[in-house]
TrEMBL record:
It comes from Coemansia javaensis. It comes from the Eukaryota. Residues 13-76 form the Tim10-like domain. It is a peripheral membrane protein. Mitochondrial intermembrane chaperone that participates in the import and insertion of some multi-pass transmembrane proteins into the mitochondrial inner membrane. Also required for the transfer of beta-barrel precursors from the TOM complex to the sorting and assembly machinery (SAM complex) of the outer membrane. Acts as a chaperone-like protein that protects the hydrophobic precursors from aggregation and guide them through the mitochondrial intermembrane space. This is Mitochondrial import inner membrane translocase subunit. It is found in: Mitochondrion inner membrane. Keywords: Chaperone, Disulfide bond, Membrane, Mitochondrion, Mitochondrion inner membrane, Protein transport, Translocation, Transport. One of its GO terms (biological process) is protein transport. Heterohexamer. It holds the Pfam family zf-Tim10_DDP. The gene is TIM8. The twin CX3C motif contains 4 conserved Cys residues that form 2 disulfide bonds in the mitochondrial intermembrane space. Belongs to the small Tim family.
């Protein structure tokens, strides 16, 4: 079954968006796990302590900041 050029472009765009979403989910999962290992020593209850919560927040923000830095740096190198 052959698709016309417009349909092929549309399918390619959908595939690229889905791939990007999957990569983002994988990245979030990865740094959440890393931050958990750093911040949570022992899960004592079904809620995080304020210290654990703050640690998780700071850790995730650092990963986001670092990721954004890398993306911007790579973009600047391409230009």
């Amino acid at each position: 079954m052959a698709f016309d050029e417009a349909t092929q472009r549309e399918l390619q765009q959908v595939l690229e968006k889905e791939t990007a979403k999957a990569q983002l989910q994988n990245t979030v999962h990865e740094f959440t796990g890393r931050c958990w290992d750093v911040c949570i020593r022992e899960a004592k209850s079904n809620q995080l302590s304020s210290k654990e919560s703050q640690c998780m927040r700071n850790c995730v923000e650092r990963f986001i900041d670092a990721s954004m830095f890398v993306v911007k740096r790579l973009q600047s190198l391409q230009n």
